[in-house]
Design brief:
It is built from two helices and 14 strands. It is mainly beta.
């Protein structure tokens, strides 16, 4: 894991200048595993997470993203194992990104703090359906009508620290793209840094404030998030029952997103986000996202404080 930490730091320093962007998901405030594999080191449960995002609703060929993740923590080895599959379709191009994830957790259970490091590895593929082009001029020689496929190895690196009061993380995606001169069709490396403050002790509500910065080449994107989670005291050892949450986030690209989530049961959560851009001259059609998350009590975990923390704080 020391090698992973060194590679992550080097990757963050080197950066990238490629063009293609990571998928856009508003619900990353619920689940950070798409860009930080270290975040799957969560004891107590097997987590199944899925979401679908329709960007610029009503526009033909607008981006549609489908994301699926599954992970579980094995406490005796302090290791988490996961799988993810992302499909992103925009116009005539579709990318598919399957990954296997491993994370290692170093925890002080008495102080409820932990440091984790993670690695995701898989392939990134992009497909072009040239027959779907609709050029303004027929027989335009500048447009290829051929079907093209590009497949390359892919990897993400990350580390994360969690305590009772905050979560801090650093990660880099698509590390094989950092020194690549191939700037077309494949995805570029992104660097992520985030800090989330949390107040979870009150019996009737939990509060979260988050800030994130993303670097893609020389471009920086900033995002802030605020969320409140309403709970119902139960008087039981697992703690209060989470009921629903409301939140809002703002990105410096003038993108505003509203969150609403509800717990169908103690282990099943549904959420919806509504986003709209206020950038002049940019497409102002709304973006919609639906998220499903289910957790299964997992007996690999043998740490009672970890199990209690997992029950009190679903995804943090």
């Amino acid at each position: 894991m020391k090698k992973i930490l060194v590679m992550l730091i080097v990757s963050l320093l080197v950066g990238s200048s490629l063009a293609q962007s990571d998928i856009s998901m508003a619900t990353h405030w619920y689940n950070r595993a798409n860009y930080n594999p270290a975040s799957i080191a969560r004891p107590g449960y097997m987590y199944i997470f899925s979401n679908i995002r329709q960007q610029w609703a009503g526009v033909s060929g607008s981006p549609q993203t489908i994301n699926f993740q599954m992970s579980a923590f094995h406490y005796p080895s302090r290791s988490a194992f996961g799988f993810s599959l992302v499909s992103d379709r925009t116009g005539v191009t579709t990318s598919v990104n399957p990954m296997l994830t491993y994370a290692y957790r170093i925890a002080d259970d008495d102080k409820n703090s932990a440091f984790s490091m993670g690695l995701s590895a898989g392939v990134f593929s992009r497909f072009f359906d040239g027959s779907a082009y609709e050029p303004e001029q027929e027989n335009d020689q500048a447009i290829s009508t051929n079907n093209l496929t590009y497949i390359r190895p892919d990897a993400n690196l990350g580390m994360e620290y969690q305590s009772n009061l905050f979560i801090a993380g650093l990660s880099v995606t698509h590390v094989f793209s950092i020194l690549s001169t191939e700037t077309l069709y494949l995805n570029s490396s992104h660097n992520y840094g985030y800090l989330i403050f949390k107040i979870t002790k009150p019996e009737f509500a939990s509060y979260y404030l988050g800030a994130q910065v993303v670097n893609q080449g020389g471009n920086f994107y900033y995002e802030g998030n605020a969320m409140v989670r309403i709970k119902k005291p139960t008087g039981l050892n697992p703690g209060p029952q989470e009921l629903f949450d409301l939140g809002i986030s703002y990105r410096n690209t003038r993108l505003l997103t509203a969150f609403a989530g509800i717990n169908i049961s103690r282990n099943f959560r549904v959420a919806y986000t509504y986003g709209r851009s206020f950038t002049s001259g940019y497409n102002s059609n709304a973006s919609h996202e639906i998220m499903l998350e289910y957790r299964i009590p997992f007996h690999w975990a043998a740490c009672i404080p970890c199990l209690n923390n997992a029950r009190e704080d679903w995804y943090r």
